Structure formats: C-alpha cells, structure tokens
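Researcher: Last one for today. Full complex below.
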Amino acid sequence: MAKEEEFKDLGFGTGAAAGGSRLLNQDGSFNIERRGLKDGWTVNIYHSLITMSWTKFSLLVLAFYVLANLLFAMLYLIAGTDQLEGTTGISYLGKFSDAFFFSAQTITTVGYGKMNPQGVFANTIAAAESMFGLLGFAFATGLLYGRFSRPVAKIIYSHHSIIAPYRDHTGYMFRLANGRRNALIEIEAQVVFSCNTVVNDKVVRTFNTLKLERSKINFLPSSWTIVHPIDEESPFYNITHEDLIKAEAEVTILMKAFDDSFSQTVYSRSSYKATEMVVGAKFSTIHGKNKNVTFIDLHRLDEYELVDL
Amino acid sequence: MAKEEEFKDLGFGTGAAAGGSRLLNQDGSFNIERRGLKDGWTVNIYHSLITMSWTKFSLLVLAFYVLANLLFAMLYLIAGTDQLEGTTGISYLGKFSDAFFFSAQTITTVGYGKMNPQGVFANTIAAAESMFGLLGFAFATGLLYGRFSRPVAKIIYSHHSIIAPYRDHTGYMFRLANGRRNALIEIEAQVVFSCNTVVNDKVVRTFNTLKLERSKINFLPSSWTIVHPIDEESPFYNITHEDLIKAEAEVTILMKAFDDSFSQTVYSRSSYKATEMVVGAKFSTIHGKNKNVTFIDLHRLDEYELVDL
Amino acid sequence: MAKEEEFKDLGFGTGAAAGGSRLLNQDGSFNIERRGLKDGWTVNIYHSLITMSWTKFSLLVLAFYVLANLLFAMLYLIAGTDQLEGTTGISYLGKFSDAFFFSAQTITTVGYGKMNPQGVFANTIAAAESMFGLLGFAFATGLLYGRFSRPVAKIIYSHHSIIAPYRDHTGYMFRLANGRRNALIEIEAQVVFSCNTVVNDKVVRTFNTLKLERSKINFLPSSWTIVHPIDEESPFYNITHEDLIKAEAEVTILMKAFDDSFSQTVYSRSSYKATEMVVGAKFSTIHGKNKNVTFIDLHRLDEYELVDL
Amino acid sequence: MAKEEEFKDLGFGTGAAAGGSRLLNQDGSFNIERRGLKDGWTVNIYHSLITMSWTKFSLLVLAFYVLANLLFAMLYLIAGTDQLEGTTGISYLGKFSDAFFFSAQTITTVGYGKMNPQGVFANTIAAAESMFGLLGFAFATGLLYGRFSRPVAKIIYSHHSIIAPYRDHTGYMFRLANGRRNALIEIEAQVVFSCNTVVNDKVVRTFNTLKLERSKINFLPSSWTIVHPIDEESPFYNITHEDLIKAEAEVTILMKAFDDSFSQTVYSRSSYKATEMVVGAKFSTIHGKNKNVTFIDLHRLDEYELVDL
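Model: Here's the assembly. Have a good evening.
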C-alpha cells in the first residue's frame, strides 16, 4: 500500500520535495522551470498577444502602427518625395510629414490619392505596404477574435481552507464559486494532498487523492463547499497542524467544468499550503434574501467563524 | 441514507429552500443573484453582442457607425475645413456635411480622395480614424463569425410533465424534441427531483437523482418521452399532488448532446414545478404519415389525454 | 427482458415501423420529417452557406456582388448622376454603367475617386454602401473560415454487410476505412439492429444493440472490419435472410472518432438494410505491397468472395 | 485467451506483419499508404496551408500576390492602357509597369485614383479584381487565424526505452515531457506492444495493451517516466532482447491531454522498436535546483545509466 502511494505523483515527481516552495501557486501556475523548451516563437508571440491585458494590447497595436509608418516613411524618403505626386512639404520636416501620412494612407488602404506614388521604386514600396497592411489587419482580426472567444473559467476560491465539524467528526473544507456570469455545467473536483515523508531515510514527496463527500455537481449558480470527510484513511487523521506545516503539506485542486457560453470544457487550478489552513472553523453563510430574490455575496466567500472541534 | 440525500444538492445549496420561487426557470436560467462578480467588462460586452437579437445588433452597429462619424466630424471641424482639401460647404451645415462624409470615407477606408486631409492635425485624425475603422471592422468580423458559429441546442420540452400509466404501475414523464434542423447525437438526460423537507425542525432542500427507464439515446430525429418509473424508491411513490405542491417540489433537467453541424457538445436545461404536473394523463401521438413519409408535428409536443391511473 | 427491448428505441420511437422505408439512409441522414421547427432563419442560411458545394458557393457570391451593385446603381441613378462627379456617361446606358462601376468601387472600398459623390443624397448612399460592403466582407471572411475549418469525417463503408464464417460459427460483418488524409484517433463503433416485431397483435419496431468483437480501436490507418459474433443472444441467430427482409431489419451504425487535424470529435452514421446483406461471403484482402511499402486500396473496400457457411 | 489477443489490432490489421518496417514512426505518422482517398482538394489545400512552415507560407503569399498582379496586368494591357486614365508609361515596359501597379492598387483596395479605369472592359476587370482581392484577403485572415489557433501538443519522448530495475523485479520504461510552454492537464497514456507470432504456421501480428503502473496524471509540469511492470502476464516476461528484435517487436504510444491554452483536447503518438530499447539501464535525474527554483533540463530527457538487472 505504502509503495503504491510512493508513485502517485500527479506529474510533479517524487523528487519534488523542494524546501519550502509550493508545487502549485494559488493562481494555478506551476513552481517549476523547464529548460530546453521546443516552442515555436510564433506560438509564443500569439499566445502572449492573446493573454496580455487590453491596455497593454492597445498600446502595442498603436506602437506597431506608428513604427510601421515611420519605417515606410523612411523608405519613401529614400525613394525621394519627387516620386510622390501631390506632396507639398518643402522643409525636411514637411517632406517627412508627407511621407508619413502617405504611408498611413497606404497601410490602411484608405488611399485618398491626392498623394500617389510615381516611379517604380515608390510604387513597389506602396504595393508592398498595402499588402503588408492587409495581412497585418488579417492578423489583428484573428487576435481580436482569439482574445474574445477564449474561454477562461474564473473560479474564485476562499483564501483559506478549514477543518470544520462534519457530521459526527470533522472534515477538511474549502469553498468556491463561479466568478463569471457564464453558466458552468457538470463541475468536477479532483483534490490531491501531498507532503514530505521519510522513506528509507530519504525525504520523498508522497501524494494522496482525497476522497470527497461529493466530487461532481450539475450546476454552480451559488457557492460550493467541497468537503473531504476526515476518517481513518484520511491523511489528515490524527495529525496536528504543526506536523502538517513541518511536512510542507499542500492540497492541490483541479476543477473541470463545461462553460455554457463558450461551449467548451474549462479547467481551473489552485492549491492550499498547510499555513493557509484554519483548524476549528466553519464558513459563514453568504446567502441572503432581498425582496424574494435569493442572492449570494462573493466578497464574503472567505468568511469563517472559529468553532470548537 | 437520509444523511447522504441531505448533501446531494446540485450546487444550489441545501439552504435554497426559497419561499415559492423556482430553482431553475423553464428556459434554463437560474433564480439566484450573484453579487461581486469578477467578470471583465470586455467579456461581458462581447457576450452581450454575441447573444442579442439580430434586430438589436443591426441597430447597434448602425448607431455606432453614425456616432463614430459624428465624433470624427467634430474633430475635423475643430481642425477647420480649410485642412480638408476639396470641400465645397460654405454654410455651417455644409461644412458639417463635408466633415461627416469625409469621416465616412475615411473610416470605411473607401477614401475617394476628392476630399483629402491637408495639414498635420487633419492628417493625424484621418490616420487614426482609418486605423480605428480597420480595427472596428476586425472586431465586427469576429462578432459576426461568433454569432453564427455559436452552437445552441434548442431542445423543446412539453409544457407539462405527467404521471401516466407505465407497465404495471405508473411513471413520471415529459416529452422533448430537437427544435433545430441540426442532427443531435448521443443525447443524455440527467433528471433531479428536489423538495423542501423538515430535518431536525429545520426546512432544508433535499435533492434526488431520478432513475430513468433510459437515460441515453443515439439519435433524436423524432420526439423522446423521458420516463421515470415510479417504484418504492421513487420520491413520487405514495405521495399526493397536493403534498408535492406544498413541498414546492421541482424537477430539474440537464440534457447533453453532440451537435453534428457544429461538432460541439451542447447542453440544455429546463425544469417542472409540481404545479406544471398533470396526474393521470398520457401524451398523444405526434407521428403522422403523408405519402409514405413519416413526420412529427412539434406543435403538438405538449398534447396529452387524461386517463385513469 | 422482452419488455426492456421494447423501449430501446434509439430515439426513432417504437411507432417507427414504417412500411418499407429505412430509418437511416446510407449517407447518414434521417428518414423522418419534422414540422414546426424553431430554427432561426439566420442559423439555417449560415448552415446552408457553410455546407453547399464550392461551385454553388462561388456562383452565389458572384450573383450577390452583381445584384448588390445593380441595386446601389439604381439608387445612384435616382439621386442623379449629376451628384456623381467625374462621370462621363451621356446615354442612359452610359449613365447606368457609371453608376454601376461607382457602386463597385464603393462596395469594395477601392474608391479611386475619379468618380466621387457630391450632395447629401449620393454621399449618404455611398457611406451606407461602403459600410454594407465592409460588413458583407466580414461575413464572407467568417463563411470562408467556417467552410474550411469544419471537421467532417468521411468514413467510407462497404456497400454490403456480410454474414461470414467467424471462428467456430458465423459473424455479421461490414468494413470501413477513413476516406480522408486526416488521422482519426480512438475510433468507436455503436451498432444497433432493429426490425418489426408483433407484440400484442400490434407491429412495433424493436431495437437491439449488437455486441461487437471489438468496439474501439486506437488508430484507423488501414481498414477496419467490424464483427458482430452471432451467438445465441444475437438477433441474427437462427433466422433466415428472407425473414430478415420480411421484418424490414436494418442495422444502424454510429461511429465516433477524434480528428487529429481539426482537434475535434467527429461522428459518422450509416445503415444496412437486410437487402444490402450477403449471407455466406468473406471480404477480400485490400492490402498490397509495393517496394516494401504496405498499401491499401480503398476502391476495393466492398469486394467479397462467396463462401459456404 | 490467445484467440482474443489475435484480434486486438489497434486498427493496423493482423496482416500488418510487414518485413522490417515499423507500424508507427517516432514522429507519430503511419507507415501505410492509402490509395483511393476521397479527400476534397479544398480540404487538402487548406490543410497544407495551415501546416506548412512560416517561411514557406510567406513565400507562397508573396508569390501569389505577384502572380495575381501579373495576371491582372495582362488583362489591363489587353484592354489597352488608354482605358486606364492617368497612366504615364509610353514604352512597352512603362505601360506594363503602369498596369502592374494599377493592379496592385486595385487588388489591395488602396485605390489612389491617380490611375483609374475608363471604359466598360477595364472597369469590369477592376470591379472583379477588387472583389477577388477582398475574398483573397478574407481567406488569408482565416488561414492566419487557423495557423495560430491550432493546438498542437509537442510531447518530447526519450529516444530510447529501457528495461530498468523496478521494485523487486524489472519494468519497461520510457520518459516524456511537455515541450511547449502550454499547461497540459489530465494526461493519459495508452501503450500497446505488438510483435510477429506464428499462429497455425502463419505469421500474424499480435497486439497487447501494456498494463501501466499509472496511466493518468493530473499535470505535466515536469517529466513523466511511464512504467510497465514486467510480471508473468507481460509480453516482456522471460524473453531476450534478441527474440524481441527477431519478432520485430514494437511499442506504440498514444498520449491524450487537455491543452489549457487552447482549451482543446490534444493527442500525441510515438513508438519504440525493439532496436530502440536498452536492457539494463535507468534514467538519470534531470531535476536541478538554482537559487531555490527547481528546474528540469529537457535536453537530458534521454540520458540513462547502465545498471545490472
């Protein structure tokens, strides 16, 4: 039995008994660095552009637009503004301004035509630039669609997990809710306990899937308190809070659900260290009623009261 | 046993014993308000734009187009129409009209060029506007694609559920059909009964998954009558219609299927309150035959005849 | 036992004992008409545009382009060509030609500007047309993407199913292969037998899921012969070909697989009537070898040799 | 028992006992040629354009742009440059240059208008070309989006599989890791052993699903060593390396995971021939620690040390 546990490792490896650092951060990212990745740079750039904030994205688009126009303006200046019919600039700044705005009119394909290219060089640059503009715009279209249509579950977790009275004994619990307006369907939880254990005088990391009172629900319109009943087989059985902290215990959570708005399966990850656990507490109710409408207040998701076990 | 029931709560919470209101509306939406949502506004706007009616969407696009042109027209008027070559307006209205149509020619990148910007200010606005137009158009492309390619199951349910004769005793039944032309494949039903129960002098909501005669079918070309046989273990066993209404009984339904046209999994939700139940009835046939072609008439999905049990 | 069978109906309904017509056509479409569908027209139009042939689609796009230009040309003619600067047409045909090409230059946003709108009416039409052109183009972008990115499994089935020697007795078999270059992964088969049976002096349709020697394979690089061993529990046991034909027996097939190129689950449906069954045959091998490369020839998928059972 | 094995064939067919060639290449492609495919050419072209390298794709786009402009330039020359107002070319080359750049201005819809079509023929070509340009651009938009948004698992496998000490006896092992930055969730492995066996004096290919110590993990942030314990039921039990090579033994691997960045299920395939197996070895550790950060070095995925069994 003990031997089997040894190998249940979630993919972190039994050698992952790292000094003090956690396996999974509360935001669901991993605490391990991988060297020698074979990512294509295109995938990485695309992925960054899809996930960055809207402010950053807007500034980047603007910067790219200005830079591209600056670059093409240089090329038109090299060609000479005499190859641009209809320009009026005489000073260097005036010529540059003409070249810059001609570039903007070309890259957006607005092409008023008051200024227009004459000569093979300027014409070739303009033909290349308008094509480049169209492709850049095609790329932007894909990016915008990708940014909006990407389903991201935003499950909010209580900041603390607790050990609370449960039926005749106690249970390990945490609470979560859907932070988005989207309806989540068929929500499943997988909860794994891990800690450092001494096996043959060597510290290894052991992993235990926690049995849950209920691991799947149909809908998540309200909050859900996930309960692991602490019985004889539980790794929480007859162990003190200090021992859990010493063993660097960590509970990692994997939630799976179907997002009804995006028609796709979504996942969410989180974790609780032993230090984020309160022994002897119960979650306060977050349900309320206002003029016959039941509501829940997500700001109070982490609220608990201390109780005797 | 009773204890276990207590916790089968579908995610509504056992505290959801609300006075008279239903958990799930017949259109599948939830009867609970969530406060403190962490939705990004971008996701919400996108989602609204994807799900609103076509009439509303068209009017919004039109309004946005006119408003954007009005705004940019203002900016060109601030720059002064002397910065727009080729304008002919002399009166204020004429100048405004010129600015407005120049804006339209710029934002759509049609750029005839009869009117064209002169001077740094007007040129800068025009460069910004054409860029803005392109991005707006990119966004519209994504929206149109998103509106069309979004799979939405339209399962139609009979308005009433019935208790009908079934084999040697009775069964709880409702009828459904695919309201769209799309082929649905591997259709699954999950049906849950809930009612108010007094546990330790406290009213709590209890939940029961109903056993179905058949919970999965391969295809849904016709109608499907879902049957819960009422045996000793059924919550409908030996209970009167009045008691069900008093206990605010509700049957919630979760249907899952694969939409063959969109190659995606789709869900549909509905519910029946005790008051939407007819005791002693059977569904009328909705199959017909016309020149060797079998047909069903979806308008008659809810038709039933009263019978003795 | 018999009672349970009565209700295994795949969703066609036990009343589907139609005279001679099949439940499922060999191309996987259903033989039942549904009246009173609640499809939105938008979804239907989109779906038609996605699934029609490329020839038809191209002609439709062309027709739409010409018609839209004709319509807007009319509007410009109503406005009067004096509101279009730069036109040269004097005859009615000349004026129409000018209006038509000006419309084309506007709807595509090419906007040369030689011809350009003067006056509020022509300008308004042009502003509307360029906007309309952009949206139409956005729609076309979505359509083209939708047409290409839609995963469609093209599983080819042998035209006949056979009853062949299998181990010590016989088996019901048919053969299939992937007709596309795409790799299919985790291919699953569900095969259901149905026929007319007399129950209480009434002809009802009964349904039987056929047990398969193997119902799932990992890859489908070659052909797959699906085998239902005919034992005592099989509906094919001790029944003649004539009886099967008389009972209008039909075998319906539902295949499920993961399409590796499109990263999506795909389904394929087909069926065999009793008349498409050969009793006493075995499939010929379709494997060959050419210079150390194994190949299969899909044209020979239906080839079989008659054998004694 | 033996009879059942005979038919577990993964879809390669028991006749696949090919002389020396492998069923599955290490990159996951199949070693079988299919003749008579029913692929539509459109799907193939789209698929090629989605999967080719960026360099090849860029060159193709450029080539297509130049060729399209050459073609339309020809058409304008046929119409005669007198139908193009504003052209200045007198020599043949000058006229061609005018026609070419006018085409570029039309196909990108930039339409400066200095040059513009006069006469029905040139106008018709220009109207067709701008429409063609828009559709081409719509297609490019779809392609770019398709290229970026396509989820591709890049699981890296050790080049060798090994037979290593495992608990009290030995195990067959190979090691893998996620080669991309994307988080993979719920990773599943299916491993099948196949070899040539003599059944009734005929060489057939037999297939065996290998039992794994663990076939599913929640996350793959680090590397994963997949272990098949060699017990009495294992096909590796009491067989020499030479016998495995003689029997052309091959281990095929199918990995399934959920790609968190693309919200889609992805698959990866690979295989090991008996000749790619090292008997008596164990994988070296690839974990390291740098300033409290655990890291793994993917370049060392295949490193192993020879050991006695």
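Chain B touches chain C through 65 residues (CB under 8 Å). The CA atoms of residues 15 and 204 of chain B lie 6 Å apart.
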